[in-house]
């Protein structure tokens, strides 16, 4: 039994004090005596006792108040309360405060010693548990700190730019890669400042504005020196947003080279194709040909026409994507729709399709490239004609709203499988259910999408397999300045 524990006695009655002092010293406890509150405070502070025995009315004060004060300062200190007589009310309050035990007259030495020993042991056990807990929590914290340090090192060293913003778009973190990308000094303190003040790049602004509307917006950030970053904005709950950026300059260069290659090849193919078609057309004029030769000539003509259409589509796509058709003018949309329908009229009647045209009387004028808008309509209506079986229905709806025009081309054709729908606007993509014998290059909708993008519009498809498809195009309207009479 470790008897070197120090017991602090705060007992008002001198006789009782002597009794406790002798009894404790007899079993080798160290004893300290406080005769008033000031001495009690001093001893508590300086000698760190293992136990305090406090008597009722010590120094004329309320013993519960003194005990509560001590336990507030030293919550794990065992305090024994010595009452003049058994008082369940006081005992209840004392235990509520956190006093270890209560003793009351008549006092027996063995009972006192047992109580003292139990209280010290319990306090030791609590102390051990506390130490173990502190050790465990410290180890956990250490582990977390190490993990955070690792994370910090990763964010510091990755080649991708990382910017974390709080909910008010103030910078919380910007890693060295992002600093390098935007030409910020590595040691310039920018954390806490608004993003648009530190990095006033218009593409970043667009990306952040998009993040309010779309869940995971994605945008390219272009720099004057030709660099291009692909940036993604991810909301982080209770923090703000994370912007991650990868340098895709080399991919853009490869894409540009590939487009140039396709453009050159397409361009070089056009003249020989025209020559082939010209000579094939002349064949039956230079001498008699039999029925089989005639049939072969028609097949050659069709094949050359198909290749020519593909080459023309490729050249068009290249031109649209390169922004060569960015010049816009006021477009009479109704005229364009009617003209497209006139041209495609024979195909509609050949397939005995029913055309429903819902055109409002006063379609406002819009701003755009008439040739490309016509091409967009040709491709969309052409597809509806091509894919809808004989006798089917094609509906064209036009709706003008205050700031946009909505065009919908629907059919009751084969529909597009859900798995194909996200890809049909990609170059050369054809859905898995294209009916047998229906030709195509898979470039038509890619051209449509580029034209819509060029007009700052949006396009999407709603389609049910076996029931039909509806392509919706939304184009912003051109607001004409209205001259007010003087
Ligand atoms: P294609 O030259 O093959 O028609 P598009 O780019 O115009 O190429 O269309 C891509 C694919 O989308 C088509 O191959 C077809 O699978 C599907 N598609 C387009 N329009 C329709 C439609 N109206 N009905 C059913 N499928 C369609």
CATH architecture of the largest domain: 2-Layer Sandwich
Low-confidence parts:
480-486
Rounded to an integer, what's the Rg over CA atoms? 44 Å
The name of the CATH superfamily of the largest domain reads Histidine kinase-like ATPase, C-terminal domain
Number of helices: 13
Largest sheet: 5 strands, parallel
Outline = rod-shaped
Structural class: alpha/beta
Which band does the percent of strand residues land in?
15-25%
Describe this structure in words.
Strand 6 (161-166) and strand 7 form a beta hairpin. The chain has 4 domains: 6-132, Response regulator (Rossmann fold), CATH 3.40.50; 158-247, PAS domain (Beta-Lactamase); 251-322, Signal transduction histidine kinase, dimerisation/phosphotransfer (DHp) domain (Helix Hairpins, Orthogonal Bundle), CATH 1.10.287.130; 329-481, Histidine kinase-like ATPase, C-terminal domain (Heat Shock Protein 90), CATH 3.30.565. With 486 residues, it is an alpha/beta fold. It is built from 13 helices and 17 strands. The protein has a 5-stranded parallel β-sheet, with helices on both faces. The chain is rod-shaped. Residues 480-486 have low confidence and may be disordered. Residues 379, 383-384, 387, 411, 413-414, 416, 424, 429-431, 434, 440-446, 469 line the site of adenosine-5'-diphosphate.
């Amino acid at each position: 039994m470790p008897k070197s524990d120090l017991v602090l006695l705060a007992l008002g009655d001198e006789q009782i004090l002597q009794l406790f002092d002798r009894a404790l010293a007899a079993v080798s406890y160290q004893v300290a005596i406080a005769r008033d509150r000031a001495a009690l405070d001093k001893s508590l502070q300086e000698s760190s006792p293992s136990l305090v025995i406090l008597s009722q009315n010590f120094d004329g004060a309320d013993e519960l108040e003194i005990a509560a004060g001590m336990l507030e300062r030293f919550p794990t200190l065992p305090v024994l309360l010595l009452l003049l007589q058994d008082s369940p009310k006081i005992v209840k309050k004392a235990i509520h405060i956190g006093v270890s035990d209560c003793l009351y007259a008549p006092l027996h030495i063995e009972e006192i010693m047992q109580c003292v020993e139990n209280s010290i042991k319990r306090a030791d056990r609590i102390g051990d548990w506390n130490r173990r807990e502190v050790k465990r929590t410290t180890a956990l914290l250490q582990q977390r700190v190490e993990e955070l340090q690792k994370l910090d090192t990763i964010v510091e060293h990755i080649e991708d730019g990382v910017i974390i913003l709080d909910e008010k778009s103030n910078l919380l973190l910007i890693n060295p890669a992002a600093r390098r990308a935007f030409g910020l000094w590595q040691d310039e303190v920018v954390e806490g400042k608004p993003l648009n003040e530190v990095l006033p790049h218009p593409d970043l602004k667009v990306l952040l504005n998009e993040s309010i509307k779309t869940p995971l917006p994605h945008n390219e950030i272009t720099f004057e020196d030709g660099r291009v970053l692909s940036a993604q904005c991810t909301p982080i709950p209770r923090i703000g947003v994370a912007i991650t950026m990868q340098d895709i300059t080399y991919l853009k260069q490869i894409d540009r080279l590939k487009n140039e290659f396709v453009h050159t090849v397409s361009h070089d193919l056009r003249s020989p194709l025209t020559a082939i078609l010209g000579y094939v057309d002349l064949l039956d004029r230079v001498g008699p040909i039999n029925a089989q030769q005639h049939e072969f000539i028609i097949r050659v003509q069709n094949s050359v026409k198909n290749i020519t259409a593909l080459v023309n589509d490729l050249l068009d796509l290249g031109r649209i994507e390169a922004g060569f058709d960015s010049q816009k003018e006021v477009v009479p949309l109704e005229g364009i729709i009617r003209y497209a329908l006139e041209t495609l009229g024979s195909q509609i009647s050949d397939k005995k399709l029913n055309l429903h045209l819902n055109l409002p009387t006063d379609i406002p004028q819009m701003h755009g490239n008439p040739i490309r808008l016509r091409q967009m309509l040709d491709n969309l209506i052409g597809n509806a004609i091509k894919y809808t079986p004989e006798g089917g229905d094609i509906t064209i709806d036009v709706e003008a709203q205050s700031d946009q025009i909505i065009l919908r081309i629907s059919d009751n054709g084969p529909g597009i499988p859900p798995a194909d729908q996200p890809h049909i606007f990609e170059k050369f993509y054809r859905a898995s259910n294209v009916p047998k014998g229906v030709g195509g290059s898979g470039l038509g909708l890619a051209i449509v999408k580029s034209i819509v993008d060029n007009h700052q519009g949006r396009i999407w498809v709603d389609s049910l397999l076996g029931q039909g498809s509806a392509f919706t195009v939304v184009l912003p309207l051109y607001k004409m300045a209205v001259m007010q009479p003087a």
